[in-house]
Design brief:
Structural class: alpha/beta
CATH architecture of the largest domain: 3-Layer(aba) Sandwich
CATH class of the largest domain: Alpha Beta
Number of strands: 13
Number of domains: 2
Helix content: 25-40%
Shape: globular
Number of helices: 13
CATH superfamily of the largest domain: Type I PLP-dependent aspartate aminotransferase-like (Major domain)
Distance between the termini: 22 Å
Oligomer: single chain
Largest sheet: 7 strands, mixed
Length: 401
């Protein structure tokens, strides 16, 4: 039997341009973002200007991680301890973790069978809970109908904070993901679309929210050294009322990210060539279903999800084990036991008692998930489809026997 031999967690090497820039920062010894000479622009400030331009938005803050960015965004948007915050139930643990960390109370919303937040349930939960913030996770790069979603939120007076950890570079009807809500958060953790190990961005067009976020990030009174920030008078209004919750990005990580950002749109096209081949291949496998993407969505195919509909639920762990034995690493979101980065909403017990979400559980019950690193080429993707298809057929044959 054929076996796949490449790693599902190996990213592309950092470019020589980025390595040289990082070495220059290390030789200077000035890694802290505010350790600059008068009139000098730090690597972090330059990155903030460049990312704001990339997003087509006014303000940008580079910070320590995407999860930290969500915490700052929630605080800057006015969430207080005890406030209810809507969030889709299909996401990763840093999203409910951000809500919990600032004392918020998560109100989890069902998802549909395309992995989007369910807009009917969103409206019902917004009305019943009185929550005025939605922390919307574009989970695994699936962008909902943002026109309809924003209409629901506008109807109930809900402010949207977008978690774009999986959609950096994606668009809905030509508008970049992150430019629909009041504020957006992005991640530059190793497995995201640009890689600094850890890191993130907050973007917004709201000047007061931007100023609050900068002070929250730990600017002290050095906020004037940030890039892509509002005017001094905005900071003067908020600077003494906002706590310092230090979580700055450093110049070393910014130096690594700037060349990657310049190449991001090209990387998106490379991801999508791999995703499209995998999706077509998996759709041809009896027993698998890959949900169709809306043509208005320009996605980033850095991972792929499919339903193992032709397998009994109890056979899915064996399916994953068989694929892993042949070098193909899949995850299962229907597993009640958290594994690695993957967990289901009912394992986040720190959120307190949550109502049953039968629709979400039904969707996740047979959802398999796979990373698509750019270290894979198209022939690698063909081999993965072949292996997965053979293992599905083997188990379906066993079920029929």
């Amino acid at each position: 039997m054929k076996r796949f031999t490449k790693s599902f967690t190996q990213q592309e090497p950092i470019s020589e341009t980025a390595v040289e820039r990082a070495v220059a920062v290390m030789r200077s010894g000035r890694l802290h973002r505010y350790n600059i000479d008068p009139g000098e622009i730090s690597e972090v400030a330059a990155l903030e200007e460049e990312y704001a331009a990339f997003q087509g938005i006014r303000y940008c803050l580079a910070c320590a991680s995407g999860g930290y960015g969500m915490q700052v965004a929630l605080r800057a948007a006015g969430v207080k301890p005890g406030d209810k915050v809507l969030a889709n139930a299909y996401t990763l643990a840093p999203v409910p973790g951000a809500i919990h960390s600032i004392g918020g109370r998560a109100v989890l919303v069902e998802i549909d069978d395309h992995y989007h937040i369910d807009l009917g349930d969103l409206g019902r939960k917004a009305e019943a809970s009185g929550a005025r913030i939605l922390l919307l996770s574009h989970m695994r790069g699936h962008i909902a109908d943002m026109d309809r979603l924003m209409a629901v939120c506008d109807k109930f007076g809900v402010t949207v904070i977008e978690d774009c950890a999986h959609t950096m570079g994606g668009r809905w009807r030509g508008t970049r993901s992150g430019n629909f809500g009041k504020v957006a958060c992005f991640s530059t953790q190793t497995y995201k679309h640009i890689n600094s190990g850890e890191g993130g961005f907050i973007t917004t067009d709201d000047p007061e929210l931007a100023a609050r976020a900068v002070v929250l990030s730990g600017s002290y009174m050095l906020y004037g050294r940030n890039g892509a920030i509002p005017d001094e008078e905005v900071f003067h209004r908020v600077r003494l009322d906002v706590p310092n919750c230090s979580g700055r990005m450093d110049n070393l990580r910014a130096a690594i990210l700037r060349p990657q950002l310049a190449a991001l749109d090209e990387a998106v096209e490379r991801w999508n060539a791999r995703y499209d081949l995998l999706a077509e291949g998996f759709r041809a496998v009896p027993g698998l279903r890959v949900p169709a993407r809306d043509p208005r969505e320009h996605y980033v195919g850095s991972s792929i999800q499919f339903f193992a509909e032709g397998l009994r639920r109890e056979a899915i762990p064996q399916f994953l084990e068989n694929c892993a034995a042949r070098g193909v690493e899949l995850k299962w979101f229907g597993d009640a036991e958290p594994k690695g980065f993957t967990s289901r909403y009912d394992s986040w017990r720190y959120l307190g008692e949550q109502p049953d979400l039968p629709q979400t559980l039904a969707v996740l019950d047979k959802t398999c998930d796979m990373r698509v690193p750019l270290t894979f080429d198209l022939d690698d993707c063909r081999l993965i489809v072949e292996i997965v298809g053979e293992e599905v057929a083997r188990l379906r044959s066993d079920q029929a026997a």
